[in-house]
Amino acid sequence: MGALSPAEVREWGPELVGMGVTALAGAPNVLAHFADEVRQVRLRLPVRAALWSGEPMTQARQDAIRAAFPDVGLWGNYGSIETFVIATNGPACRLGALHLLPGQSLEPDDDGALLTRYGDGWPTPARRLRLGDRIAATGCPCGEPDTFEVLGRADDCFKLSGGMVRVSIVLGNAASLHGVDDVQLVLYRDPVVPAAVVGLRIHYTGPNADAARVREQIVLGYEDLQVVDRHSPQSIVVEHVTELARHPNTDKVLPVIWESAEDLAGMAS
Predict the structure, then answer these.
(1) 85, 113, 173, 201: which could join 221 in a potential S-S bond, CB 3.0 to 4.6 Å?
(2) In this predicted model, which residue has the larger pLDDT, 179 or 266?
(3) Are domains 1-71 and 157-268 of this chain identical in fold?
(4) Beta strand ranges found along 56-146 (DSSP E)
(5) What is the CATH number of domain 157-268?
(6) What whole-number distance in Å separates Cα of residue 266 and Cα of residue 269?
(7) What φ, ψ does residue 20 adopt, rounded to 5°?
(8) Residue 266 contacts by C-beta under 8 Å, 6 or more apart in sequence?
(9) pLDDT tens digits along 78-104
């Protein structure tokens, strides 16, 4: 499913109930927003399964879905357009744990994990195909083997005021804070040195509207940002927002948005 506005949920509500909808599929943020609207309009849907893919399932998104559909089982897929599904996450799994499908191997690598597939019948064969994600072995209470978690993209570092900052660490640390639901980074690119960033804005949603306190916790939780904060505190701005920017075609929440340094100068003036 794609995103539905509150008016569309109210309009389609009787149809969804009449159809006997028991399963949903979509990006986690879309499912969470739909669940919030279902609760607002007091729509009763006996949803038993929600299939998610395309972006991470965060604790806040999971909580929103379960609040509207207490009997739901969450089923996640990890993969890409090129590879289709590589691994899955089921109702008994820990959030973030992924189980590799049979007939595959993953080689961890700092430049991105390498996927190899064995046997016939795969929609996309692969021999040491670089995925671009950093992964690490982990455990899961469900007991299934071949468990890993995604640490972030291999190329998610940027330079800020002379320091090297990793996007996945900032996003993960911010999302772990109490009262923070979703997080998005806005990076302002240096027009002369495109690999360098001259300003970082961290947008977040959730009940914690004390942006100064959130900023303090984010900086204290990451040594590289502490260094930047000592020399260039003005380059790190944290803002509480009601909505994060989404991709116009897929409606996924964009973890990172790149802007020009001229835009940052215009905002400052």
Answers:
(1) 173
(2) 179
(3) no
(4) 73-80, 84-89, 98-100, 104-107, 114-117, 129-130, 133-137
(5) 3.30.300.30
(6) 5
(7) 70, 40
(8) none
(9) 998 889 999 999 999 999 999 999 999
The correct answer on CATH 3.40.50.12820 for the domain covering 1-71 is yes
Band the pLDDT of 179: cuts 50, 70, 90.
very high
Query: How would residue 238 be classed by pLDDT, with cut points 50, 70 and 90?
Result: very high
Domain ranges of the chain: 1-71, 93-153, 157-268
